[in-house]
Structure to design on (355 residues):
């Protein structure tokens, strides 16, 4: 549970020269309790591994807050904001290593500066939204494969599971841009772009697997040694993403209804998917960059009724791409991947009831 309070003050009440300026402040006190209880049993090739037991309770609390300043006029909004966030720790019942069954709370400071603007180029309306941010993490929570050989009760069948770990210090800096333009009354173009740069400042784990693993410090870390992962690519954070969408109004008729078509091209840079291993240890952890084309035809209020019809197609270029990797090569010696959906078509008919 968490009591909180937030208020916004219009600075025009302080001085008429500050018309359009507002300041917002908020604070929250969070109280959390997490309980975990489990027995981890596993066998491999008919050979049981030693069981792992979990029975614990976590109590934690934190103060989080936000402070922002913004300026608004008829056509724009400019803002600056700083905030502190918190995510409670907990238990991972699938952790192979009992020492990894509990993970700590995550804390973050976020700084953001942005602008939202409406203007015209000649007679063409344009909306432009921009934002830049910097996020600083402490004890960032990461989820990955967990392999463990108990030194006090060794077995040729190690325990294999998954655990949440704390990644020490990390930061993300980014830029976001959105633009909407209506060159003709029946045509709307929308563009979105994001640049993201994520880095680990500190990230080290104890190698509890039965195999040596690569480390950023150079060479390999044997079982029981500390693994430096601070040079690892940032998890699930493509550097560049963008999309371009065109929406065309075919007709808007009180008799026939409204018919629109849309086409979207979406691009995603290569993405790293392993939380606890370097690329040298995990072939396939990098997902290739990809571009996908999707489209739809929407007919609303068919013949002035409450029926709506949508015909859609996804991955129209039938792009073959991998969207996920289990990242177990370094522990089990094989790869399992999940492919994205092929070209697909569909039809959806819906009815809108009275409110």
């Amino acid at each position: 549970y968490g009591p909180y309070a937030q208020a916004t003050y219009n600075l025009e009440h302080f001085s008429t020269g500050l018309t359009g300026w507002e300041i917002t402040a908020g604070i929250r006190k969070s109280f959390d309790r997490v309980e975990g209880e489990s027995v981890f049993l596993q066998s491999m090739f008919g050979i049981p591994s030693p069981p792992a037991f979990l029975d614990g309770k976590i109590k934690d609390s934190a103060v989080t807050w936000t402070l922002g300043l913004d300026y608004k006029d008829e056509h724009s909004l400019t803002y600056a904001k700083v905030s502190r966030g918190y995510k409670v720790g907990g238990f991972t019942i699938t952790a192979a290593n009992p020492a990894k069954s509990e993970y700590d709370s995550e804390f973050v400071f976020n700084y953001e500066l942005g602008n939202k603007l409406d203007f015209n180029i000649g007679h063409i309306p344009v909306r432009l939204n921009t934002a830049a941010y910097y996020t600083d993490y402490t004890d960032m929570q990461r989820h990955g494969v967990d392999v463990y050989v108990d030194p006090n009760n060794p077995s040729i069948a190690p325990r294999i599971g998954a655990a949440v770990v704390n990644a020490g210090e990390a930061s993300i800096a980014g830029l976001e841009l959105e633009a909407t333009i209506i060159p003709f009354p029946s045509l709307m173009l929308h563009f979105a772009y994001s640049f993201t740069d994520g880095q680990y400042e500190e990230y080290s784990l104890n190698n509890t697997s039965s195999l040596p693993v690569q480390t950023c410090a150079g060479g390999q870390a044997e079982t029981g040694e500390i693994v430096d992962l601070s040079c690892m690519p940032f998890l699930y954070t493509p550097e560049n993403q963008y999309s371009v969408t065109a929406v065309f109004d075919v007709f808007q008729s009180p008799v026939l209804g409204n018919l629109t078509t849309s086409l979207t091209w979406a691009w995603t840079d290569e993405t790293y998917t392993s939380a606890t291993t370097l690329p040298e240890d995990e072939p396939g952890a990098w997902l290739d960059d990809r571009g996908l084309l999707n489209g739809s035809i929407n007919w609303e209020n068919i013949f002035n009724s409450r029926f709506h019809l949508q015909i859609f197609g996804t991955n129209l270029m039938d792009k073959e791409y991998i969207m996920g990797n289990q990242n177990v090569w370094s522990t089990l010696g094989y790869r399992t991947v999940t492919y994205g959906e092929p070209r697909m078509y569909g039809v959806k008919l819906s009815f809108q009831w009275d409110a």
